[in-house]
Amino acid sequence: MVHSSPPRFAILVFTALILAWTLLLSLPISSREGSVTPLADALFTAVSAICVTGLSTVDMATHWSLFGDLVILAGLQIGGIGVLTLASILGLTVTRRLGLRQRLLAAGDTNPMRMAKGASESQAVGLGDIGGLLASVATSVLVIELALTALIAPRLMAEGYSFWRSLWDGFYLAASSFTNTGFVPLPGGLAPFETDIYLLSVLAVGVFLGSIGFPVIFALYRYVTGGGWRAHKRLGLHTKLTLTTTIIFVIFGWLLIAALEADNPATFGSQNFGQTMFSAGYMSIMTRSGGLGIIDPLEMHGSTLLVVDMLMFVGGGSASTAGGIKVTTIAVLFIAAYAEARGYRDMQAFGRSIPNEVLRVAVSVLIWGATIVLVSTTAIMHITRVSLDVALFEVISAFGTCGLSTGLSGELPESGKYIIVATMWLGRVGTVTMASAIAATSRSRLFRLPEERPIVG
């Protein structure tokens, strides 16, 4: 299974890690009071960390001990990087070489469609570039998180935190933002900094970099170091689609959130124009999957909640630390709709054609994601009797591994917690499972059945 289906193997390891982290977080040493954390809360936190979601049922700033925080930090780093990618990096470090099987293993973590029989190598990252990608992952995680820590720690010290506390909390926030987890170790969360342009800008940059994905970071690095504008063709279709769609959704969310909340006294109503635009832009970036919110969703208008729902459902880039159905999925669907409207036989973007099997996977991921959200929302509404907008927001945040919360997760009964746990797990690995299953079943037939067209639309 390791070599024939890396995505399925990754899911098994992923689940095993969740069980191990649940056990560790259940230990008395993991809680600040030295007591055993209830199984539902330990499991919820373990899944939220490894699935880089950021939802919690306990106070993250006061419940966990130093050991518990270390376990959580290790979990979100593993979940953000990816199980198979991390294994390949460790293997490369030990053996100093990367064979074909190891390259295929790492490739399956970034693109499950690679496992399809007869899949071409016209991929976002070729097998020959896997070694460079792994080095880029390790380097970007180290460099970006250390840089973010160096920017955050002085601001916390200026707020009155001690040097070591500022350094620890700064690294925690850096890792939480870059991995798009959204855990906050500070008492009171980010409420004391909700108008702090400097700190929020640093966190927003971290979330954005994590949400575009390691293949895009790798492509941008090669682009910058390989000739700049004269090497424009170095930026492949995946990179262009990811960056273009991400920027469009950030701007779309920015303008809509600002417009819808401008007259809301509970959110932006008391702010001037500049503060409103900054806060709206920050919240739009957080819907990529960041979760480091500065506004209580319960105080938003219902129309704003719906916009945020849509943004969280889309999420970030493929092979990134973000969740959701991914921006490239929605881009392919819009390109297909445009091609159909214009009567084109194939899909085209940025001077490249997109094969129909990519559309097939995109449609499957969309239907799979919508089904998960529908079933989970129905179950949560039945158990808690909360309104649709509150239940839908919490479920989509769990599915999109975003972490923005109405506070419902902390008030759920055990059955509701397990439903959100399953939603987070499916949101992180379910789409990968579906994509790999669809890719694995791609095969040719020696015959064609008679054609008949049903009425559609």
UniProtKB/TrEMBL annotation:
This is TrkH family potassium uptake protein. Coiled coil: none annotated. The lineage of its organism: Bacteria, Bacillati, Actinomycetota, Actinomycetes, Micrococcales. It comes from the Bacteria. The keyword Oxidoreductase does not apply. GO terms for cellular component: plasma membrane. It comes from Leucobacter ruminantium. It is a multi-pass membrane protein. One of its GO terms (molecular function) is monoatomic cation transmembrane transporter activity. The keyword rRNA-binding does not apply. It is found in: Cell membrane. GO terms for biological process: metal ion transport. The chain crosses the membrane at residues 42-58, 70-94, 130-154, 197-221, 241-260, 310-337, 358-383, 418-440.
